[in-house]
Amino acid sequence: APIEKGNYRHYMQKEIFEQPVVVADTLQSYIRPFEGEVALPDIDFDLSKVDRLTIVACGTSFYAGLVAKYWIEQFARVPVDIDVASEFRYRDPILEPGGLALFVSQSGETADTLAALRHAREQGQRIAVVVNVPTSSMAREADLVLPTHAGPEVGVASTKAFTCQLAVLAALAANLASERGEFGRDEERDIVAHLQEAPAALNAALGHDDEIAAMAHLIAPARDVLYLGRGPYFPMALEGALKLKEISYIHAEGYAAGEMKHGPIALIDDNVPVIVLAPSGPLFEKTVSNMQEVRARGGKIVLISDAKGIAEAGEGCMATIEMPEVHPLIAPIVYAAPVQLLAYHVAVLKGTDVDQPRNLAKSVTVE
Ligand code: G6P
């Protein structure tokens, strides 16, 4: 049966609002709340012995992989290499025999990612995949399948598949951290509790829909929009910019907040909205000082942060969006919601074809 839009105007909107449920469904197969454990499907090799991980993907799935690099390195202390699939094969990457390569894909059919998977296999790598389609080519060719349970995604711009990928990758990072002794028993138990908070936190983030719809009027007239973040919020900034350009056709760039002074700051004037993703925490002050550099040049800031961050740095911003305060392993999942909603509402204002943006395809099966 065809998937219905129900009360929603677009599939993308419906899929954005499905996230608390599908992220919960996805997490359910990776956590054992009673035991306080993060569990992965059975495999015939010892994941904890892997001393280097290669992640490969395209588009939004690549940004999920980039967030995972921060998590896996920070929490599990495993070095991670990451590439977009269309670059991976052709640079003849150095892959140690017995290494693990991880491919992230909603469809499991993206031609570049599938070719990269086969290349890694030929180079003696073990293959793990995070996929949303269990019958896909990538799922069939993998040694370890880590499914997302996002359900069919119709909107060309990926939303719920992305947050489900992040949920799986957070579970993977936590599992590796536990297996490698970086997390003790109490920490693992604690992380399971935090992972369980993700759906409710996402729900709270989605509660800002009306506010973000009103804010979209401030963004829609812009020619360029800049997204800034540090740490895992750098890839989240890249994803925010990708969502906006995909469906609203406004030029948008995601940048590491600290790198802005090496170029994009030249673009800033009072016509350029700058979206800053910055929860309070160790990177906050540095990001705020980058934000002040924007403000000093007339840039109009939208600050996405928690109550503490907004109290500290919200003054003088064009707008703020308050996110719940959650564990760093969960927060990027939550911060996905406001950037998706902002892109969605701007696109609606511009009257574009939100679910079928021009020149884009849901699944790209050509290299
Ligand atoms: C296309 C889609 C994107 C998606 C990318 C990777 O460009 O429009 O939404 O992120 O392919 O797709 P995959 O199925 O491999 O995640």
TrEMBL record:
| Compartment(s) of residence | Cytoplasm
Q: Which GO terms describe its molecular function?
A: carbohydrate derivative binding; glutamine-fructose-6-phosphate transaminase (isomerizing) activity
The reactions it catalyses are:
D-fructose 6-phosphate + L-glutamine = D-glucosamine 6-phosphate + L-glutamate
Q: What class of enzyme is it?
A: transferase
> Main localisation, per the record?
cytoplasm
Entry annotated with the keyword Nuclease: no
What's the superkingdom here?
Bacteria
The catalytic activity of this protein is classed by the Enzyme Commission as 2.6.1.16
Q: Which GO terms describe its cellular component?
A: cytosol
Q: Which residues act catalytically here?
A: 362 (for fru-6p isomerization activity)
Q: GO terms for biological process?
A: amino sugar biosynthetic process; carbohydrate metabolic process; fructose 6-phosphate metabolic process; protein N-linked glycosylation; UDP-N-acetylglucosamine metabolic process
The SIS domain is annotated at 43-182, 215-357
Record's keyword terms, sorted: Aminotransferase, Cytoplasm, Glutamine amidotransferase, Repeat, Transferase
Query: Function, please?
Result: Catalyzes the first step in hexosamine metabolism, converting fructose-6P into glucosamine-6P using glutamine as a nitrogen source.
Subunit notes for this chain? Homodimer.
Q: What is this protein called?
A: Glutamine--fructose-6-phosphate aminotransferase [isomerizing]
Give the encoding gene's name: glmS
Full-protein residues shown here are: 241 to 607 of 607
